[in-house]
Amino acid sequence: MLKLLAGLGFAVGVVSCARPIAAPAATSARNAAADDTPDPPPASSPANPSLRSVVFGADALAGCDTDLIYLNQVMGWQVRWPREWARFARSEAVTDADFARWSAVPEVLDRDRKAMAGRGDDPGAAPAPVVRRVLGQIEELSRELGASDGRYRGGPPRWRALRDQTIVPAVERFAAFLRTTYLPRAPERPGLGELPGGRGCFRRAVEWWTSVSPTPDAIVATGERLLQESRQALGADADGALAKLREAAADETGDRLVQRSKAALARAHGAVAEVFRFTPPVPAVIPMVPHLRASFPAGYYRAGPTPAYVVNPSRPGERRLMAEVIAFHEGIPGHHLFAAYPRPGGLGPFNAGLLEGWAIYAEYLADELGLYSSEYDRQGMIAKHLWAASRLIVEPGLHLHGWSRQQAIDYMARTTALARKEIALEVDRYIAMPGQSLAYMLGYDAIASARRRAEAALGARFDLSGFHHAVIEPGSRSLAQMNRDVDAWVASVRPAMAGP
Fold first, then answer.
1. Can you say whether residue 155 is alpha, beta or left, with left for phi > 0 and alpha for psi between -120 and 50 degrees?
2. Residue 209 contacts by C-beta under 8 Å, 6 or more apart in sequence?
3. Secondary structure E strands in 224-363
4. pTM reported for the whole predicted model
5. Under-50 pLDDT residues of the chain
6. What is the pLDDT of residues 160-187, one digit of tens each?
7. Which residue, among 99, 72, 74, 70, has the nearest Cα to 84 in the 3D structure?
8. What is the distance between the alpha carbons of residues 9 and 84, in angstroms, rounded to a whole number?
9. Domain spans, the chain
């Protein structure tokens, strides 16, 4: 995940590459009934517009009456804001602008709380599984904020006073609201299906994240095809292979996960020069902050001045299988290489279809380059592709076909090698972020198809580094534009094939 999200990717950590998030158009039916021009949900403090509580990707749900724009366990404020708080704890001064910005925390959270307070059990309320994840993160964050030796406890006196007297009470009020008022009434049912216009909401969310708009049947058909391809890659006894892969590595530790990831990225760094025109430095590999570990995926990429692959060291025995493939996805040749690639126009407008599709393509490319250190790790790659393909069946099930959360968990338990705890994390993410998980395999399928088309057209003149340059040098854009760029590259090579 570019901090979006592992297995998820770009979005959460790379705010600079995202589309600007307008105040979402979603408003509650109760407000709309009272006023033909209802106020949009509060996205920030009026005096401090940079302080945003609305989750990244809220535009995907524009026009949908749902509290998922406020509550998200992968991209919510409780994930984003603490990074800056930890930085202040290590600094010697806080600027006036920073002080004014973070003084608005009570106003922003109280406005969100009031916007959600009247929901009751109407269809727009966030599903209880999402609320539980967010509440758990906020409660753990509150404990860390109050710990005498915690990562948030240092900093200049002005910051410490703001934290203890303003920020901490506001965080605790929001947690208490979720715990005592919102969660007891939150529906267990997942999905957008019961919302007015829910099918349209799902369709628009898929298009926002991926830049394509396949029919639900086409999404499922693609998932079934890719699942079958991955099962075939496991051999004649795919079910037997999956049963073995589901066994946790009893001797794995969180530290070893981090070290395996570092070793995998070092191998990748030494190998990709033959198929790319640019090789970035290896990103740092660091453990995830404690308050996110219980409800966060296996890892994510964080761009910026000090890019890093952030590893979730919890449940290391279960996560050993895919340690290498996720490192390649998040680092080199995946998100890190894409983000660091030199381009005059910058990274471009956010599109998970290309960004996450590229990262899945990078997993296959790592196999092509012989980067997996053992057959077990290569099977981890295949297992991850089963996981990614299953999303194309699970998401339409949850949001369009009335699947329960348990149905989705049971389906993935049958078809993937993931442990049930990991599956539960994943399913709750699909509930919270309609359309996002589809970007991975829909995007990969488009990139792989473009490569096959270019190989067929150019034959022996096909140059893999040239193809990669055509895909990633223009930056993030729609999958349709990526296809046009590849076609233009093919056309530019063809005259050279003809000769003088």
1. left
2. 57, 60, 351, 352, 353, 435, 436, 438, 439
3. 284-287, 299-302, 308-311
4. 0.88
5. 4-47
6. 999 999 999 999 999 999 999 999 999 9
7. 99
8. 20
9. 22-55+65-190, 201-275+294-438
